[in-house]
Specification:
Helix content: 10-25%
Strand content: over 45%
Oligomer: single chain
Radius of gyration: 47 Å
Structural class: alpha+beta
Distance between the termini: 172 Å
Length: 729
């Protein structure tokens, strides 16, 4: 009997072990719990349903639990179906024995779900404008996820849930010209924390990656931080058209190639507005090419059509009220590379910019002061600009240094139109292309400016003023300006200089309103320049004991010598009436006059002009200027050989129309000699011989003048009157 009992016990234990082993490894399939599982799911949301097939039970004898697993169920919410690979849960063994179902946890592994379908399903569960937008821009992509959920005693989901998985081959169409393709990343969601890892995507055919992006939703607002990087990114002209649109000034980008690594963080409030954005970036700019739209070839003679930046290491920090950029590298503006380093700092409205440019052996010109750097010499530019409100810009420091040549500017205040509001100091020390030493300085004492120095070469400045083909108004200053001048030596050409140039100039709205300047040539010969403005207009006078340095600049006059110059002009309502007088001078070559004398058969005088020259006692010109039209009321010149009376007009750069009378001195003597009593007194009893004179016309474009002449038999009363006036003097 004992043996039978022992064998029964042994058999029972064996059956029990076998059963436990079988249930622990193979398990059993049943549908008896389907209704209870669906009931629990339905309690979470009445619209939520679970479509179950056979449920498999596997015993866990150690924990006295049973693992419940189903394959291929479908989660349904308001007719929207979501396919699931597996769903698992654990149930205490005692509840199984009691034929009860208590859901403690749920583990779901999804199939590969279309991202668009997933968003559509979520929108049915909980709709929002953001999900609608997201569903609209999503084109393709697959999601696989593992979801772990625990339930409390009341069947509610605990906060320790976790969702992990990956997105593969996502595709978004963000804007008309922007698309994101091949989006791949791992994700992990726990309570209010979301992590995205190993992110890779292609943005407009450019590869971007991120090691991690973290989203914290535990507080009132959402906190997001992470990184993104790119290697050897290349953008062509069409790609960069999007960037060009961000600049108010038209920058024509051609290409860019760079590598970048960036860290970022920001807060997203409940209205999905970005706050506290912070970005730190390290950029290795391999090469950037942009079309050069700057018209500064007069300063940089070898200026290229494209600007090229190469091998720049750039650090960028951006956060609220702060934007910092620092970098250095090479720049190709001309034929030779230049090195540049720069720092840009913006704190709220305050901007500070510093830069150092090594011009190298590239040429550099400042034509208006006749300076040009030699190509074989190095030069450097140092710049610092400060702005407190972006309405004014203070050039705190601008230095250009090349060998012994120095251009130093301090505290130049500009308004937003880049007109000068104020300045503290400008110091120029340089040797110009004529090998003249220039040393001048501009300083300020309250509202009065002082221009002083030991020497200045004004040759090029005078030449530019006389040769100007357009009426240019340089609005450099935004305020009226009192300028005191005191310069020891002023070179006005390669032969003449003025000593002790001194006086004052008052500028009103960038025009000379009043002026009083004086200086001396050698032997104390005087030079004066005055401007006086009143209700009658602007009166300008110029007197120079040496006329040659001014007259010889006109290319059609050659071989000019001697004489002094007196000029007077009144300007009112943009119309000027002027008188120019030149006394006691000699001409050796004047092509227009030579042609006129030849046509008039006055070859002897023409030969004299090309030989030892023709002397004139006086030249007087009365003329009016308005816009581009110069009306010559009268030109009269008298000398020992000939006299000329002329009038007409000149339309600037378009047309010349002159007519007049030319008479040899012998004819004048003969004609005046016939006047009773007066003729004998002025001329004497003997009369000259030769051709009587000619009338002439000169007309045509400035470079294609046509001259016609006709002999005359009598002199006009006007000619005789003007001649008598001059002879009496």
């Amino acid at each position: 009997m004992k043996k039978i009992i022992f064998r029964l016990i042994l058999l029972t234990v064996f059956i029990l072990i076998a059963t436990v082993t079988y249930l622990s490894t193979v398990g059993i399939e049943t549908k008896s719990f389907n209704s209870q599982i669906k009931e629990k799911i339905n309690k979470l949301d009445p619209n939520l349903d679970l479509e179950l097939k056979t449920v498999k039970l596997i015993l866990n004898p150690i924990n006295f639990t049973v693992d419940v697993k189903t394959i291929g169920p479908n989660l349904i919410y308001r007719s929207k179906k979501l396919e699931i690979e597996t769903a698992k849960t654990k149930i205490l063994l005692k509840y199984i024995l009691q034929n009860k179902f208590a859901l403690n946890n749920l583990e779901i592994s999804t199939k590969s779900i279309q991202l668009k379908n997933l968003l559509s399903f979520i929108r049915v569960v909980k709709n929002s404008p953001e999900l609608l937008i997201l569903e609209t821009i999503v084109k393709t992509g697959h999601v696989v996820a593992d979801i772990n959920i625990e339930f409390d005693e009341n069947g509610k989901i605990k906060n320790n849930y976790s969702i992990s998985g990956f997105l593969k081959d996502g595709n978004l169409s963000l804007l008309k010209k922007i698309s994101a393709d091949k989006i791949n990343f791992l994700f992990e969601i726990k309570d209010n924390q979301t992590k995205l890892n190993e992110i890779n995507l292609v943005l407009n055919e450019k590869k971007l990656s991120s090691s991690s992006i973290e989203i914290d939703n535990s507080k009132k607002d959402i906190e997001i931080n992470g990184d993104f990087s790119s290697k050897d990114l290349k953008f062509n002209k069409s790609d960069l058209s999007l960037i060009s649109d961000l600049f108010s000034y038209e920058i024509m980008f051609e290409s860019i190639n760079f590598t970048t690594k960036n860290d970022f963080s920001f807060i997203l409030d409940k209205k999905y507005k970005i706050k506290n954005l912070k970005i730190t970036s390290k950029v290795n700019l391999h090469e950037l090419s942009a079309k050069n739209n700057f018209d500064i070839k007069s300063i940089l003679p070898d200026l290229s059509k494209n600007i090229l930046l190469k091998n720049h290491l750039i650090n960028i920090i951006y956060e609220k009220d702060k934007f910092d950029i620092s970098g250095k590298g090479s720049a190709l503006f001309q034929k030779e590379e230049s090195n540049i380093d720069y720092i840009y700092k913006k704190n709220k409205e305050v901007i500070n910019f510093k830069a150092n440019l090594d011009v190298g052996k590239n040429p550099f010109k400042l034509s208006f002061i006749n300076y040009q750097k030699k190509k074989n010499l190095d030069s450097k530019i140092k710049l610092e600009i400060i702005s407190n409100d972006q309405k004014q810009f203070l050039i705190k420091e601008l230095d250009y240094i090349e060998n012994k040549n120095k251009f130093l500017l301090r505290n130049i205040l500009l308004n937003k139109e880049f007109k000068i509001e104020n300045l503290d100091k400008i110091n120029l020390e340089f040797k110009d292309v004529e090998n003249k030493v220039n040393q001048i300085e501009i300083t300020r004492n309250e509202n009065i400016f002082f221009l002083k120095g030991s020497s200045f070469n004004a040759n090029k400045l005078i030449e530019d003023l006389l040769d100007s083909k357009e009426d240019k108004k340089f609005e450099l200053f935004n305020k009226n300006l009192d300028l005191n001048i005191n310069i020891d030596k002023v070179f006005i050409d390669d032969e003449y200089l003025l000593n002790n140039l001194s006086g004052k100039i008052y500028f009103k709205k960038n025009n000379i309103n009043d002026a009083n300047l004086s200086a001396f040539f050698s032997n104390d010969e005087k030079f004066t320049f005055t401007v006086n403005t009143n209700n009658e207009g602007k009166v300008t006078t110029l007197y120079s004991a040496k006329a040659k340095p001014f007259v010889k600049r006109y290319k059609f006059i050659k071989g000019y010598d001697g004489g002094y110059l007196d000029f007077y002009s009144v300007n009112k309502n943009n119309k000027s009436n002027s008188k120019l007088k030149i006394y006691d001078f000699n001409l050796k070559e004047l092509p227009a006059l030579t042609k006129l004398l030849t046509l008039a058969s006055l070859q002897g005088i023409a030969d004299l002009l090309s030989g030892e020259g023709i002397g004139f006692d006086e030249f007087e010109m009365n003329f009016e200027n308005q816009n581009n039209l110069t009306t010559i009321n009268e030109i009269y010149a008298i000398g020992p050989a000939i006299s000329i009376l002329m009038e007409g007009y000149v339309e600037k750069n378009k047309l010349v129309s002159l007519r007049g009378t030319l008479v040899p001195a012998t004819t004048i003597n003969k004609a005046i000699g016939t006047i009773p009593i007066l003729g004998k007194i002025l001329v004497g009893k003997k009369t000259g011989e030769g051709v009587f004179g000619v009338s002439f016309k000169i007309k045509g474009p400035p470079k294609d003048l046509e001259t016609t002449v006709n002999p005359i038999k009598t002199l006009t009363p006007r000619f005789i009157t003007r001649t008598l006036e001059k002879i009496k003097k």
